[in-house]
Amino acid sequence: xxxxxxxxxxxxxxxxxxxxxxxxxxxxxxxxxxxxxxxxxxxxxxxxxxxxxxxxxxxxxxxxxxxxxxxxxxxxxxxxxxxxxxxxxxxxxxxxxxxxxxxxxxxxxxxxxxxxxxxxxxxxxxxxxxxxxxxxxxxxxxxxxxxxxxxxxxxxxxxxxxxxxxxxxxxxxxxxxxxxxxxxxxxxxxxxxxxxxxxxxxxxxxxxxxxxxxxxxxxxxxxxxxxxxxxxxxxxxxxxxxxxxxxxxxxxxxxxxxxxxxxxxxxxxxxxxxxxxxxxxxxxxxxxxxxxxxxxxxxxxxxxxxxxxxxxxxxxxxxxxxxxxxxxxxxxxxxxxxxxxxxxxxxxxxxxxxxxxxxxxxxxxxxxxxxxxxxxxxxxxxxxxxxxxxxxxxxxxxxxxxxxxxxxxxxxxxxxxxxxxxxxxxxxxxxxxxxxxxxxxxxxxxxxxxxxxxxxxxxxxxxxxxxxxxxxxxxxxxxxxxxxxxxxxxxxxxxxxxxxxxxxxxxxxxxxxxxxxxxxxxxxxxxxxxxxxxxxxxxxxxxxxxxxxxxxxxxxxxxxxxxxxxxxxxxxxx
Amino acid sequence: xxxxxxxxxxxxxxxxxxxxxxxxxxxxxxxxxxxxxxxxxxxxxxxxxxxxxxxxxxxxxxxxxxxxxxxxxxxxxxxxxxxxxxxxxxxxxxxxxxxxxxxxxxxxxxxxxxxxxxxxxxxxxxxxxxxxxxxxxxxxxxxxxxxxxxxxxxxxxxxxxxxxxxxxxxxxxxxxxxxxxxxxxxxxxxxxxxxxxxxxxxxxxxxxxxxxxxxxxxxxxxxxxxxxxxxxxxxxxxxxxxxxxxxxxxxxxxxxxxxxxxxxxxxxxxxxxxxxxxxxxxxxxxxxxxxxxxxxxxxxxxxxxxxxxxxxxxxxxxxxxxxxxxxxxxxxxxxxxxxxxxxxxxxxxxxxxxxxxxxxxxxxxxxxxxxxxxxxxxxxxxxxxxxxxxxxxxxxxxxxxxxxxxxxxxxxxxxxxxxxxxxxxxxxxxxxxxxxxxxxxxxxxxxxxxxxxxxxxxxxxxxxxxxxxxxxxxxxxxxxxxxxxxxxxxxxxxxxxxxxxxxxxxxxxxxxxxxxxxxxxxxxxxxxxxxxxxxxxxxxxxxxxxxxxxxxxxxxxxxxxxxxxxxxxxxxxxxxxxxxxxxxxxxxxxxxxxxxxxxxxxxxxxxxxxxxxxxxxxxxxx
Lengths: 574, 622
Hints:
With 574 residues, chain A is of the alpha/beta class.
């Protein structure tokens, strides 16, 4: 995990290294000052030497200011290094997520990705800032004060030798006991957030089925789970405070006792004993801070792991090494294709698909809900990789193409489609960044979107609200078609993309497509016979298999499923 | 001028919020809070006594011992051993107190979180639909996470540290005064300087923390949208553009975060070194004063004063910083209280619904009479809209003078463009929104007299957009009726033709799905939602584009099951496929909130109006 995360430090390495250097300088001066003040008292004040007091005082002032500057620089440097590191982490995660395949995307919920990008990164940022500043400061203070106390009295400093290991062992045990709670707590958070999310989004269902009480019970269960775990872990973590204070106090008392004996025995001066107290304070204070850091790291360790999971997730679809950058025509071949969404699935989503689609052909696909129509076409722009067999476009396996080239040439309008916040024009330009206004209008005309866009208050500059709430389902579908058309693709796939468009408009869209894009292979998935009736060939899908392929007239005659759908739809009027 | 008024307002809100918050903490567990406070004081006291003990050790024990040795006596370590034992007792009280307040404050913070979350959620469930329609989902959600987290921070860390620092500061300053008021006054100059610096830095840092929160919110919103549309991004190979946009937000956040954290952490080296500066200055000035006899100062007093001065500046920094995080927590608390103060759905209804367990499909209203008796009125599903007007916002009327008479068992279809008011009519019926004027009468009872829960229990709704809840498929169907048996669930799934695809899932009815529906297609989710409505078995059905994502053949089969179900029940059907509504008893054509045509299919075709044009394809539904 640390190795994965530390790769994101990059340009902030210099700042990250400067911070400990500043801190070390600051600590050394800080530990020197009491010593020098002692000297000032002994040599200056005791002897009434005013010029010496002035000289030493000036040196001390300069040192304090240097220490202040060093400390402030350490803060500046560490805060910026940590913020930069966090920004790199977010960037690496976000960019990596962009490289995910559909399979990877299905694995993480978008809610959990959002949390990882914010809350978890924040935790790691805090931890990193601590590591490069305080985690340097505390051990440094420890070392310097141990050295100073050994100089003063080697025998008394043996007390630290006895106490420190006990202290470290006990803290280690506490941390080990507390650690397992945190991943569970994070899971609890995910669960609780999900309940809130589902209730906020599904409030209409909750209210119509009068399910408020059971949902509240669900929520209280999830928040209670977090509470119980946190309370238990708190009891363990609080032992830290107990151990630290106890050890500090016992050490002080031990120094009192043995120190007194040594003074009486004449091997120690009173002044040295006073110094010992302040250094023992420093030793235990820094140990205390180390313990606090450890607790912090426990929490951020869990976050770090969640981030590392995202970064180390291997995109299951990657660009080939020597990708083909040209896709010449719209020919598609499925050669004994089998596909499962997940290795562990018992049933195949696609079973032994064999298919040859010629460039420029119009293909209709029909089948019942859940017959793998969408799955079949998802293989063409390589949204998923097939389990066995081969999919070839324009004579080459889809795996040999550059992904961008492939997907720019295979335009797919998804069933679950979205528009993004921005103007209509900006949304359409997703299809082609450099599209001119004329091209945009032309595409919109083909998709029969131009008419209603012009009627909107700001025409093509009308803002689409988040989630596309200000356009109707049918309008949204036509906009997403226009967006795909702007790619000028070799293959166009419409996955039930006109379900909310009325039949006449749909027919006109089909006619314009045939007229304006004769070379483009067109694949249309629909639930309506009328939408695919005129296709060159129609594929009937059933339970992941191609049941039949043929023209409308052929299928009506020989295919029972097809003719029953057709008959039913005809009976029902339009 | 405006700004000052705003500031006054903010302060007023703050003190209100603070007292409400403290009340909340106190009432959640008064004994925990009180014990925590006592233990904080004990811990600080034990610390103070410890510092004093070192001086006493030298003056009262070591010096006499040394004298004893010098006088040739055997040193008597007895009193010293006794003093150390007593000191150990005091220390023990100290570290046990330390443990207790750390633990109690931590648990108390969690307890408060637990309580606030539950209160907030319980209240949220009672809020009117309008609240959810008007507020950003992400914004509501962040109250359960970000805002509550700041609260925990405040209770478990800021309050104890603030109290502790305040106590320490009071002790240190009084001790300094006792030692030398002249040096104390001199220290106050440095103190004032430090205070100025601290206030400046904390103000800066809280400003930049606010900027950071704002930038965090922006990047959150961007992520939410982009991750939601990730599949579309991939299909359009739009990754480079999205990465670029993200980088802009990311860079802004980095800058704000760097500044915020610099100002926050720079406080400690500055204050620490201000302490050192004071230390040096006191040694210098005190020394000079002692030599020149400007003030009656012993060397011992200077030494003690030096020790104290080092402990002087840290509590000031602590207090200032804790004040900041308390202010931040108050902002969070305010957002939480805002949600809790949102008025809940009003419900003055008295009429309830009950089901006769013995007879299928037999529901009745229980209408309390003036004489205290209860009259049973059978639920027949006779619904009358009588000159209903409605607007979501005052100036924009959505429904104009809507009158409908849906007789028991009628299938009523609503047809019209997006925004014509179809869904709004169903919102009126289940009282998601309240009508402005007119009346809705249900089986002779004005619906305002029916308790909302009971009114909704009599209506099943299937919406175009299906929301599922984390759990098994079985749980999700049972959502419609928690008392349904497993057999009832299978029955409903078969009727809605969901049974078929459920069987193909790896774990069948026990397959776990989450709110997004996982691998299910939209059609499959709609089938589940129909099964859910079927199992609810309620007298009136509202189908709002219920079958829009289901293929026509499956729809036909679902329809068969549905017709079975609808038989004898009043139903309202909203659909853009005219094929699903031609057999309705009453078709209402809506345009801009007016009913422009009403009648059955044949009547409307004869009228040759809007419906005719739609049916013949001359007009399209937007």
